[in-house]
Amino acid sequence: MTDATPLPPTDPGRHLTSPTTRGALRVQQQLLTAAREFLRGRGFTELLPPIIGPVTDPGARGSKQVDIDFYGHRYKLMTSAILYKQASLLAFDKIFCIAPNVRLEPLETAGTSRHLAEFHQLDVEVAGASRDDVVQLAEDLVVHMVDSALRELPKEFAELGRDPQAFAELLKGSFGRMRHAEAVAELQGVGHPQSADAELDWAGEALLSTRRDRPFFVTDYPKGSRGFYDREHPDDPGLLRNFDLLAPEGYGELCSGSQRTNDYAEIITRMRETGENPQKYRWYLDLVREGVPASAGFGIGVERFTRYVAGLDAVWQASAFPKLPGVVSP
Amino acid sequence: MSDLSAPGFPEEEVRRRARAGAAAAFPPAEDYGHVLFGAGRPEPADHAALPDALDALRIVPPLFLPQRLAKLIDLGREPDYRDVELSTEIGGFTSALPVYASATGSTRAAGGDLGLALSRQAGALGIPMVIGENVVPVNGYGRLGEAADRTLLGRLRAYTEELPDGLGGVAVQQSTEDADAEVWNLVHSDPAALPLLESGRLAFELKVGQGAKPGLGGMTVLEAEAAAALGDRFGLDALFGDGRVLRTATPGTFTAEILRQQIRLMRNNYPRVRIWVKLYPGRDVAEAARVAHEAGADAVVVDGAEGGTGWAPGVFLPHVGLPLAECLRRLAAAPPPCLLVSGRIWEGARAVKSLALGARAVGLGRAALLAVAEDRESGLRRFAECLALELRLLISALGKYAPQALDREDVWSPEGF
Fold it and tell me: Molecular function terms in GO for this entry (chain B) (predicted)?
């Protein structure tokens, strides 16, 4: 454990020179190096994702997008690269990117130890893949990244006070898998009031995470808890072919992903179900109408993943210039 | 005073109440001892362009009063109208009266200092207030230096500054065009809304269409310059021929599944916020109310096709949508637990009839705006005092002492209802 305080120091110099920050950023660099190595080895092409666009991912729970004035047009900073990931499959069948995201999260998330208003996502998308294909891919990728960091940076782990034994189970692979309905039942069984129609709440996620010794997948979230792009089960309406990857030890969600819907009419209908106005998605819908490949993919929160691997108290410790929701910072 | 008027609506009576307060519940006091009163006195129905089934109902007190006996035992003395307790749970909020201030949006009639004055007075009264659609895309939110009196933040602040502890709450509407401006996310992450959020007094209202023009979206008339500033976010139609244009919002597309999932998404994204759903008086209003309630809405609001603060084509008001009375009839079999209704509510009888027919509370739209227009400082407060007195008189006459105790037995019509 570290001597972390709940909030970053107001002096950026103090944060940057702290041994914890240095150690965490070295671990982060190694995790990304390993990810690139792994994905290139499997035939993925790395793209540089856009930062601005006329529209972005609306799927972020309760957070506000940032509007910018683009020569008189209202543009957005990306909350995730999802729309561009799907579109990029027109160029390459397997792509990844390390994408910056900005989400003005609700003020209450400043104290969750796991929310940043600005963060990065390791985004992966595979044409023709199923949800289960990319669940397996995410598991293999995570094992490779952690293994690489442990092998390359024993000194950093020692300085951070992170016991490599914490990953003994992870390195064996075979992460657990449970359906959202099972997660809800487990939480309700221990007296946590989790809604069956909603995302697992933060306390619920932490609770499940504390009860496990290796990362695990939660699959089949209900419609109404996710964005319009997650594909609905054709034979189990109301459930989505999606997943989250949760870390053990109470660290909670590391990654979200799904099989995507690429059917034009279904996307429009799902946009309405998520309260969206299809008009503003024109470029994306035009592309879908002409045809984008069926695909599946995921995004790993880079700072959250670093926090888990480095054993940090708060996600801001994994960022050189952290922006906490509502906190004015450099 | 303002230039606001409301043809077809008992504007003068509302304005008299805004001036005289509770005294306006009675004939002028100087008539006492000199005038004999009886049938033939103008009835509320005379003000309506069409016969109104709700106004035609009579409120029918019984002779035997078991609930009054219970109150008598409780108090140890004969109860009177002052013993009626009007505070009511409305959509997750506690309201001083079974009354809320209906949505007033970005229209000119509800804009400017009138909207602010209404917010202040509704806050002081401790009744919930709905902030209407399109305020943000048209007038701005208020954090970036827009004129405060038109913005959502201006109204939010005016309301909360006057709000007593433990009472009231704000419901912020979002329509399809508001979704582009992310109104809910904006409010949800705004420090100014935090006190409401933390005290459980913030609701988001999903707007399914317009009471005064069912099937259409919001409409306003704008000068060409103001319209140009809206870009392509709204439909613009230069049909007036004088430089002004009609600005239209889309009504949005709903199916049962779309409504259900939108409500679930709201509950997922804003777990600490109350969820209200506003329905226009469509012919399937009972089915829509059922879907909304089952998906988890804290309140279902039904706006009868009786009028509004916005701009509507002349052909709609007399011809389109179910009147409030028919909405209540269709909802009667299985009313949602928290049904809120609006539609030409301005005095106690129409309110009591609505409550008896299944509503939890009634909304004040035009009445609230006219009362505030009559007196920016205290018009709505005086108007509400008069309404509260009438509610107490009527409810106690029925031998009951809380609005929730009213039921269908309390009203009668020759045709049955």
Answer: glutamate synthase activity
Whether B264 sits inside 8 A of A223 (CB atoms) is yes
Mean pLDDT value across residues B158-177: 91
Give the residue carrying structure tokens 């930062």: A51
**Whether the complex's predicted ipTM surpasses the cut of 0.90:** no
B237 and B348 both lie in a single domain = no
Of B202, B227, B250, which residue is a domain's last? B250
CA of A53: how far to CAs of A80, A298, B176, in Å?
11, 20, 20
Structural domain boundaries, residue B173: 11-23+51-64+81-214+253-412
Cα dihedral across residues B55, B101, B183, B244: positive or negative: positive
Q: How far is CA B172 from the centre of its chain?
A: 13
What does the pLDDT look like over A87-105, one tens digit per residue?
A: 999 999 999 999 999 999 9
* CATH code, domain carrying B360: 3.20.20.70
Verify that B283 and B342 share a domain, yes or no. Answer: yes
- Structure confidence by residue, pLDDT tens digits, B356-382: 999 999 999 999 999 999 999 999 999
Name the domain boundary from B199, B226, B250.
B250
- Higher pLDDT: B136 or A19? It is A19
Count the residues in chain B. 417
Given the DSSP bridges, would you call strands A118-127 and A295-301 parallel, antiparallel or unpaired? antiparallel
Question: Are residue B270 and residue B172 in the same domain, yes or no?
Answer: yes
Distance of residue B187 Cα from the nearest chain A Cα, in angstroms: 9
Query: Do the Cβ atoms of A197 and B267 come within 8 Å?
Result: yes
The answer to whether A207 and A192 are in contact (CB under 8 A) is yes
Q: Taking a C-beta distance cutoff of 8 angstroms, is the pair B156, B115 a contact?
A: no
Q: Report how far residue A317's alpha carbon sits from residue A162's, in angstroms, rounded to the nearest whole number.
A: 14
Which chain A residues are within 8 Å of B174, Cβ to Cβ? Answer: 275
B246 & B170 share domain: no
pTM of the shown model? 0.89
The answer to whether B189 contacts A62, with C-beta atoms less than 8 Å apart, is yes
B194/B292 same-domain check = yes
> Above 80 in pLDDT, residue B194?
yes
Whether residue A139 lies within 8 A of chain B, CB to CB, comes out as no
Query: In angstroms, rounded to a whole number, what is the distance separating the alpha carbons of residues A61 and B122?
Result: 31
Strands (E) across A2-93 are located at 45-46, 52-53, 67-70, 73-77
- Burial state string for A171-182 with b = 16 or more CB within 10 A and e = fewer than 16: eeeebeebebee
Instruction: Enumerate the residues of chain B whose CB falls inside 8 A of the CB of residue A325.
Output: 189
Rounded mean pLDDT, B270-289: 96
A132: Cβ–Cβ under 8 A, 6 or more apart, which residues? Answer: none
Statement to judge: residues B239 and B162 lie in one domain: no
Check if CATH label 3.30.930.10 holds for domain A29-318.
yes
Q: Provide the 8-state DSSP code for B40.
A: T
DSSP per-residue letters across A92-114:
-SEEEEEEEEE-B--GGGGGSSS
Of B289, B277, B366, B365, the C-alpha closest to B327 is: B289
Q: Which residues of chain A have pLDDT under 50?
A: 1-5
B3, part of any domain = no
Smallest Cα distance from A22 to chain B, Å: 32
C-alpha A254/C-alpha A31 separation (Å) is: 13
On whether both B280 and B241 belong to a single domain, the answer is: no
Is B40 domain-assigned? no
So what's the pLDDT on residue B360?
A: 98
Check CB contact of A325 with chain B, cutoff 8 Å. Answer: yes
Residue B234 and residue B159 in one domain: no
Q: Write down the pLDDT at residue B33.
A: 83
B43 within some domain: no
User: Do residues A113 and A313 lie in contact, with contact meaning Cβ atoms separated by under 8 Å?
Assistant: yes
Give chain A positions within 8 Å (CB) of B186.
Answer: 64
* Residue B6 included in any domain: no
